Amino acid sequence: MALAVNNNTSAFNVFSNYSNNIGKMRTSMSRLSSGVKSVTDDPSGLGISERMRSQIRSTGMSRQNVENGLSMLQTADSWMQKMNDMLGRMHELGVEAGDGTKTDSDLNNIQSEFKELQSEIKRVTDGSTAAAKYNGLYLFRGGDGRTVNDATKGLSIQIGADVGQKIKIDLKQLDSNTTNTETLTYDKADGSTGTMKWGSVISSDSHLSVRSTDSLGKISAAIDHISDSRATLGAQQNRLKETQSGLLSYEDNLRAAESKVRDV
User: Fold this and answer.
1) From CA 182, how far away is CA 5, in angstroms rounded?
2) DSSP codes of every residue in 48-81
3) DSSP letters along 202-249, please?
4) In terms of C-beta density within 10 A (0-12 exposed, 13-18 middle, 19 or more buried), how is residue 32 classed?
5) What is the full per-residue pLDDT of the chain (264 aa) written as tens digits?
6) Which residues of 119-151 are buried (b: 16+ CB within 10 A; e: fewer)?
7) Own/partner pairs for 254-258, CB < 8 Å, 24+ apart?
């Protein structure tokens, strides 16, 4: 008796379709659960999206760097505002001392306050114990906040995700250190002009007092110097704010572009 084996082609066709659909359903469920495509879905797209993700993360860190730079400049400006206030009071005391009706005792009292204000400005700006700091960096010793008056160093901030995307922040040297070579011009009582160093206004051995000749002109020059320094810091703050805004927009656009490539 002959035997015959028959193939059930209909069953095989059903099983094949079933297997394919189950595989596709698993792939779809995997995509929906993770929210992103896998490397097998779009190999080239994944490579593009990973580069974008690196740029996005690094751009976010750059924004944090910019925010730290802004906070540092704002801290410096708040100290300089106090210096402006103290110099303004010193100028006021100098005018008061010019009153010929004041006795020697009056002048001594005026000078006592004048000297204390000098000492306070020096305490804020001078030496390793200077009060004006940000995260351990000296705000008014020049350079990069670590070394003194080294203009080649400056304080640089990485403001982008790529190599070389840095800006330098200039920290003013406002201590009484002898390396402070900036010369200020002031008006003398005789109508001529003189020159001085910023440190001579706050240094204890400068002999500047309310009774000094041309004290008003020197203090006025010091006030202008602080005001000009604040204007420089303000300009740097405005630049960093624009940088911050640009980085935020750039990061947002990168996220949108990466989403189109990678997201389900």
Assistant:
1) 105
2) HHHHHHHHHHHHHHHHHHHHHHHHHHHHHHHHHH
3) H-TTS---TTSTTHHHHHHHHHHHHHHHHHHHHHHHHHHHHHHHHHHH
4) exposed
5) 566 556 666 666 776 776 667 766 666 666 656 565 655 556 566 667 778 888 889 999 999 999 999 999 999 999 999 999 999 999 999 999 999 899 999 999 999 999 999 999 999 998 888 999 999 999 998 878 886 656 567 788 999 888 989 998 888 888 887 666 678 999 998 889 999 988 888 876 667 898 888 999 999 999 999 999 999 999 999 999 999 999 999 898 888 887 777 666
6) eebbebbbeeebebbbeebbbbbbbbbeebbee
7) 254/52, 254/55, 254/56, 254/59, 255/56, 257/52, 258/49, 258/52, 258/53, 258/56
Looking at this protein, which amino acid is placed at residue 249? S
Tokens matching residue 159: 């403001």
Indicate the residue type of 98.
G
